[in-house]
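Review form for a predicted model. The reviewer records the input and the model, then writes brief findings.
Reviewer: anonymous (R2)
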Amino acid sequence: MHQQRTMAISKRNHRRLLFAIIFIAINIMLLPFRIKAGLRRDFGSGSNANSYTGGAGSIKIGTAWAETYNPQHQKENNVRISFRLHDPKDEPPPDKFLSVGTFFCKDRAGLPPSLGPSDEGRLFDFTTTVSTNLNIIFIGDSLGHQFSQGFEAAVLGKGHEDRRNVHLKYHVKGKQFDCLVTSAPIRGGGVSAFWRYTKLLERSRKAKIMPCYTQERKWGENFLHTLLDHQYKDPEAKEGQPQSISGFDAVIVRIPYGWMNAEQLTKERIREAVLFCQEMLGARTVVFTTVGLSNNAGDAEVFAGVAQINQHIHEIAREWKPPEDGTDGVQWIMVQEFSNFTNAVLHENGKHLGYDVSTNDFFFERLKGGETSWPQSIPMVCANRPKDNLDSECKRNKISPDGIHWCIETLGARFTASIACLLGCVYNLNPPDTSPEGTTQLRKCEKDCNEQFMSLKRVDESLIQQGSTLYASAS
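Model under review:
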């Protein structure tokens, strides 16, 4: 009898041991998935949220980061563009390539308290770095110029600045304006480029050769050939042949408002420019930056024309019909909500200055007696409300240096993060297809990116302190 009980107990122990082994094995098998799920926490996308809350799904935390500049590098897990956010003490503001002295905003008055540091997260007190194997080109005027220079600072780390080539430039009163720039290879193995053109790229404006100067009436094929034929290789590689750029994955377009008026910037002409971007540059994605306030919108009536241009951009993006699979053409048009972002910044500054911000009328409060040929918007450039609107009474702020351009040291990190985020919606993980479901997923990702970075939504402190790698995906 004792022997039978012993045998029964032994059998029960064996069963318990077997169950324990199975339980441990199952948990070991599930562990990688649990870790992966933990890494894929998201930014909240609610319009009233101010910080990282973990609910959106489009912006993820992962490990896909490459410090290599090898153009043959393949990104981890098909994440082709990722980014990191840093404390400015660890990664300096993105101003090292700014070539126009008056674009700098150092040694100016601080931002209003509502735009400053907070326990709820960071608005402007962070910087951005990017790793990508995409070929990206910025096209536009001096505003596109300065933000492309900010992007270049994010993809060319310390010691790699010599990979930036200024092919064409001109000078005005000691200020250097770049007409054609390539940076290759950049962190991750890709390419960043800038093409200054102050009109829309249209077939009718093509010329064989054009010089680099202030006001272009036409675009030159010499610019295009210089871009596409530029050869580069990883300088650290002992072997391997140079490769040419050949084409671009994405074009970031700054609409040339000011050089062209609202009546000239029709839907038909903007749509033609999209088609031409693919034909000339091979781009499958075009990102339009919406037009914000500038010296060219001097009153509410003119500013209504700016709103019309932005409406055109949104309608073109929504109505765009991608080409069938296997055929050439621009597949996606995306919108970076730069206008909403800068308007929100100006509303906060206007409120700080004591203006009635229930409408946008305060945008058109202008300085008098300044040295520039245009009257500058007070909420754009002043940290105080100047007596009698006199330029001499304006204490300059860190929002805009001159009422046209924006302070890259302040806004550049969010601009760059939003571009990296938007392109991730298209190129990361499993790219969306052109079905209604795929389009819905892409637009949700686009919305999440804009709500996080082209807004006054704060970035959670933990993302900066932990050095997290971020990427967006529509899948």
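Findings: Confidence is low (pLDDT under 50) at residues 1-12, 30-55.
Further findings: The chain is about 35% helix and 15% strand.
Recommendation: see findings above.
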